[in-house]
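Recap from last week: sequence in, structure out.
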Amino acid sequence: MPEEVLFETELRRSRAEVADYLRAVADKLDADEPVTLTSGDESVTMDPPASVDFEVKAERETSAGGGNEELSIELELEWSDADRPDELDVS
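Predicted structure tokens:
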């Protein structure tokens, strides 16, 4: 299945700023509210269902020459459109 990137940003931030951002996302998830990601004039709103697949990954990438290493922590929430029940309206 092809991947379509809906939103992506990469900014250098302090640990405290990253923690604040993650808390804001966590607060939205805890309140069962949609999460809006914004950077400059770009934004996307996602509304995760009550249950999602949650992946945590720690990686180490080494350059081809064996010089610099890049370390990362990745957090991913994933769900299918089928995970959200269809809405049924009666009029």
